[in-house]
TrEMBL record:
Catalyzes the complex heterocyclic radical-mediated conversion of 6-carboxy-5,6,7,8-tetrahydropterin (CPH4) to 7-carboxy-7-deazaguanine (CDG), a step common to the biosynthetic pathways of all 7-deazapurine-containing compounds. Keywords: 4Fe-4S, Iron, Iron-sulfur, Lyase, Magnesium, Metal-binding, Queuosine biosynthesis, S-adenosyl-L-methionine. This is 7-carboxy-7-deazaguanine synthase. PANTHER family: 7-CARBOXY-7-DEAZAGUANINE SYNTHASE. Signal peptide: none annotated. It comes from Sinomicrobium weinanense. InterPro entries: 7-CO-7-deazaguanine_synth-like, Aldolase_TIM, rSAM, rSAM_sf. [4Fe-4S] cluster binds at residues 44, 48, 51. The gene is queE. S-adenosyl-L-methionine binds at residues 50-52, 86, 127-129.
């Protein structure tokens, strides 16, 4: 009965499979350099072969944690909260975000958009994947489009995705970390020829921080 009760709470978003939570510097995209508290939620079936957090994929390996507890911890550290994964939209984000907002916190999400958008967000970073494309209205809602560049075809994919977002969405190309030496020069060349795009780097890895 206890397991069934927990499963029901997870399905409602009242508990979440919490992989980790930590205070650090946002390393990517528009808010890079900003102190933020990260909430990493387990569970993802998108399956990017180059994912650097594959241990997040199996939600069952991460303890179901009460949203109230997650919120209390987050509020101690920062007024900017980043919810990431895994794929956080696997779960109902409304309970988490409503309680974070009640604390007066700014809430960002990093998502592939593979599941419908739930929750209330101050900033939406959409990082679409070819394997499982975004769904619902997230293209219209996204503040930032971040396309990971692993090979040449990803530039074509990036342009296709850019056509779908709203006109105010900021466009970023980010090299996949293991291919950065090869792809950074190509990204720089592409951005110089297509200046609507900006370069994003995983600066936290250069800084050797989480």
């Amino acid at each position: 009965m206890i397991k069934e009760d927990v499963t029901g709470l997870v399905n409602k978003g009242e508990m979440l499979p919490l992989m980790e939570e930590f205070y650090t510097i946002q390393g990517e995209g528009y808010h890079k350099g900003t102190a933020a508290y990260f909430i990493r939620v387990g569970g993802c079936d998108v399956g990017c072969h180059w994912c650097d957090v594959k241990e997040s994929w199996n939600a069952e390996t991460h303890p179901p944690t009460a949203v109230d507890s997650i919120v209390e911890n987050a509020a101690k550290y920062s007024d900017t909260i980043v919810v990431t994964g895994g794929e956080p939209l696997t779960w109902n984000m409304e309970p988490l975000t409503s309680r974070l907002k009640a604390k007066g916190l700014k809430i960002h999400i990093e998502t592939s958009g593979a599941y419908p958008l739930t929750g209330t967000w101050d900033w939406i970073c959409l990082s679409p994947k070819k394997i499982k494309l975004p769904t619902g209205d997230i293209y219209e809602r996204a503040d930032e489009l971040k396309v990971i560049v692993y090979n040449q075809h990803d530039f074509k994919f990036a342009e296709e995705q850019a056509e779908k977002v709203n006109k105010d969405c900021i466009l970023y190309l980010q090299p996949e970390w293991s291919r950065r030496d090869k792809m950074v020069p190509e990204i720089v060349d592409f951005v110089m020829k297509n200046p609507k795009w900006k370069v994003s780097l995983q600066t936290h890895k250069y800084l050797n921080i989480p």
